[in-house]
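Colleagues,

Please find the record for the two-part complex below.
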Amino acid sequence: MREYFLRRLLQSLLVLFLVSLVTFALIHSAPGGPVRIYLTPGLSQEAAKVQAHNLGLDQPIPIQYVRWLGDLLQGNFGYTFKNHIPVAKILWPTVGNTLILMGVAWFLSLIIAIPWGIYNSTREYCLSDQTAAVISYLGFAMPTFWFGILLQELFSLKLNWLPLSDMYTMGQARNILNLLPHLVLPVTVLTLGFLAAYVKYSRSSMLEVLFQDYIRTARAKGMPERRVVFRHALRNALIPIITVLGLDLPILVGGAALTESVFNWPGMGRLFVEMAMAREYSVLMAITLLTAVIVILGNFLADILYAIVDPRVQLAGRGGRSV
Amino acid sequence: MKSYRKYQKYQKVFSVLVALLTVGLLLSGCSSTPTANNVSNANASTQPVDGGTLTVSSFSDIVTLNPLFIQDTASQDAATFLFANVYDLDRQGNLVVEPWSLAKELPQISADGKTYTVKLKDTAKWSDGQPVTADDLIYTINTIRNPKVGSPGISGYDKVASVKKVNEYTVQVTLKQVYAPFKYYLAAAVVPYHILKDVKAKDLQNNVYGKDPAKTVTDGPWKWSEWKEKQYLSFTRDPNYWGPKPHIAKVIYKIYADQNTEVQALIKGDVDLNTGLPVTALSAVKQKKDIRVILAPGPLYEYLAFNFKPQNFPGNFDPFLGQKTRQAIAYALNRQGMVNDILKGTGRIMNSPFLPGSWADPGSAAVNYPYDPAKAKELLKEDGWTPGPGGILQKDGHRFSFELQFNAGNSRREAVAVVIQQELKNVGIDVKPKAIDFSSWIDQNVNPGKFEALLLAWSLTNPDPDQESIFSSKYFPPAGQNNIWYKNPKLDALWVKGYSTNDQNQRKKIYAEIAKEISTDLPYVFLYQYGTPEGLGPRVHFEQKDRPAPSLAEGYFYHIQNWWVTGK
C-alpha cells in the first residue's frame, strides 16, 4: 500500500511538472502578450523596453520558466503583469467561492441523483423514471447561462424573492444568512446540470448490474429484494459512478465560467476566462496547475474508493495489480 | 495622465480595447454642444440631501489608481472620485477652474506661447493632511517625462523643456516649442511627492501606491476605502476634504462579469449608474420608466482605414492607392443607414476626424459623401477598374478584393463589417471581413501596420483637435500611430501649423483646411461618432447645470460632487 502511494505520488509530480512545462510554453507562444496588451501603442519603443524590463519580461522564455518554477517551489505563484498584485491574493478567494457554490450544487445533486437513479432502476418507465428522463433532457439541452437568465428574470426581477447576482448583498454583513439567498439561483442552475448526468448514470449502471447472473442467484435463494438491491447490486453499480465523480471533481474548483459570470459569482471559472483574455500568464499558470492537482487527486480518490466498494480490487503492493 | 487610457466599456470583452489605440494620443475633438436633452430630473428631489450610497457598475476591474500609470477606462473612472485635477473642463471642453480644481486661476501663457505659469490653491490637502504644493505638480510632470518610469503618458511630454518652481504654490512649465494642446495636459491629477519621492523610477510601476487603498494617499472628495479584486471598490467621503463637501457619502464601484447581468442590476436597482449600456439592451431599459437613459454620442469615432503600404497586399498590389477609388468606397457606404440601424440613434455621421459640435468642427468645409452607389461605380471606372469575373472589378489583372479586419466579440463592428461587405459588393468590390482576437490583433496587425483594411475607432480623451500622431508621416510604426502608412506632405505641414499657435480662431481655420484636405484625400472613410448610452437609476439626482456631459471623457460623472442620492 505504501509503495503504491509513493509510486502514485512520484508519477503525479512528474505529470504536474510536464503540465506546467507544456502550459508555460503554450501560453507564451500564443500571439499577443501581456506587455503588448499593457503597453500603449503610442509609447515610444524605448518606453516599451523600459516597461518590459521593469516587469522582467525581456528575459528569454526558458529563464522566465525557471524563475517561475523557483518561485513556485517557494510557494509563490508570482504576480500579475498588469499591476503586480500577488497571484495568490486574487486566486485563493475565488477558489473558496467556487468551492462553496460548486460544492453545494454537487452535493445536492448527488444526494438527489443516486437514490433517485436506484429507485428508477427498480421501476423502469414509471412516472418517476419518466420525470427523471425529462429533467435529464432539459439539463443536457438547456444552456446554463440561458436557464440562469430565466431564473433571474422570474425570481429576482418579477417576483423579487431572491437577489439577482453576487455572493453577498453589498453593505451587509458577509455571513451565511446573507450568502444563502444568493446561493439559491446559481445552485439550482448547476444542480440541474449535474443531476441530468448523475441520475442517468446511476440508473443505467444499476440496471446493468440488476440483470447479472449473481443477482438472479441471490433472488433465487430467497433473499429479500431490498437486500439484493442494496447489498449486492449497489456496490457493483457504484464503480462506474465513482469513475464519473472522480473525473468531475476538478469542476468543483474549476467552476462554471458561464454560471459564475451570469450570477456575478466571484469564482475561479470566471477568473480564468478574464485572465485568459487579459493574457495574465501567471494567474493562468496557477489555475492550470491547481486544476491539474485536483484532477490527479480525483483519480486517486476514485482508485481508493474502488477498493472500498469492490473487494476484488487490491491496490498494488502485495502481489497483483488490478488498478 | 488623463489622455492615456483605453476605452473599455462597450460591447463584449474585446471590443473594449479599442482604446488601447487611442491611448497615447493627443486626440481631440469633443467639445460638442450638450445634447442630453432627454435627461430631466424625473422624480425630482429638488433639495440636495446629504449622505447615501451611489453604486456605479463597471464591466472591468481597475488596473491601478496611480495616475502616473492609468490607461484604462475603469481605472480612469474610479480615479475621478479620488483625485482632484489641476484644471477641470467645462461642458464645451474648455479649461476651467472649479472650486474642486487644484489650480487657483487659469494658466498664464507667456507672450511667446511657450511658458505656462500654474498657480495652485494654498488650501488643497492630501488625505493624510499634507498640503498639495508645487512640489507635487513638478514631481508628477517630471516623473511622467522620465523614460525610466515607463509612464504611458510620456509621449505627450516630449515637448516640455523645463519645469520650474517659482514658489510653494506656483510652477512654470516651459515648452520647447509652441504646442497648443499642452494646456489639456494640465487638466489632470497629480501624485503626492511626499509619498513617492523615495521610490526608484523603475519601481514605481510595481509600487503599492494605486493598488493598496490604505497606502494610496489622494486629494479628491472621496477616499479609497476598499478594493475586493474583481468584485468592487468603495470610496467614502473624506471628512477632511479641503474642497466643497460632496453630498454623496459613499460610492461603490461594482464590477460585473456579464453585461446582461449588469443591465439587470440597473433595472432591479442594485446599481444606480451604468456608464456603458449595450445598444442591444436599450429597449429593455427604456421600458423601466424610472430609469433615465442618456443617448448622446460621446468622444469616439469609428472609421474604415486603408493601408497605403503595397507590401501588405498579395503581389504588392495596393488597390487603395487611387484617391478616386477611396472616394468611391465612401460613396458606396450608407453611413446614415449604419447610424440608424446599428447604432440605434446613438451616433452621428462624421466627415473628418473632428467631432461634430466641437470648436474645431469644420462643418461644411469637410466633404460629405452621401450614399450614392452610382457615383461610386462611376469613380471606380474613372480610376481604371473594369468589370471582371463574378461581378468583381479588376485592374492590371488584380481583383478588387481585400480583407477587412476588426476585433472579435464586438457586436457593433461585426454588424457594420457585414454591411460594408454587402454595400461594397454592390459596386463590385469583394470584402472579406475577418474578426481577430483583440490582443493578438493589436500586437500583430494594428500596431505594426500589417493589414489591408481596418474597422476600428479612436476614443478622444482630450478636447484638442490635434491628431498629428495618427495621420502624419512622422509617425509611422513602430514610433507612431500612423499604422496605415499614409503620407500627405500638405497635411503633415498643416498638423504642425495647427498646434503651433495658441490662437483658437487661427487654429479653427487651420483645422478646417485639414478637414477639407483629409476628407478629399480620405486615408480613412470617417464613419460616425458614437456613444455609450448612460443609464441612471431613480435614486440619482442633480441640477440641470450638473447633468452628465456625454461628449467629455468621464463626462458621465460630470460635476458628481454636486449630485445627491435619495431613498434606500
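Chain B touches chain A through 62 residues (CB under 8 Å).

Comments are welcome before we finalize the supplementary table.
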